[in-house]
Amino acid sequence: QVQLVESGGGLVQAGGSLRLSCAASGGTFNRNSMGWFRQAPGKEREFIAATNWRGSVRNYGDSAKGRFAISRDNAKNTVYLQMNSLRPEDTAVYFCAVGLYGTPTAMAADYRYWGQGTQVTVSS
Fold first, then answer.
1. Which residue of 56, 60, 92, 107 shows the fewest CB atoms closer than 10 Å?
2. Do 122 and 88 meet the contact criterion of CB atoms below 8 Å apart?
């Protein structure tokens, strides 16, 4: 059974940093893209970042560009999201996902497995 477990969320002041981790188990995903999405209350799920199976291609949503960085360690089946210069509007539940394909797309429908999410709260 495939499981994705996110960690690293929490409460941080505006301007601070957090590093999210997502460990995948129950399968081998070194040929699949992995990505991060977030969802704030009352809003739709938003694409944040994704990386291809090798970690050599990265795709970022507009809200993440210049502040967030995605990386992965295939030996550990883990994907990371380094978040810097956090803003109150970054407050959301952050989800990681394993893609159906190797290409890091921004479409939630292109992701097959999802974690339960980790809460990130940024105070002003």
1. 56
2. yes
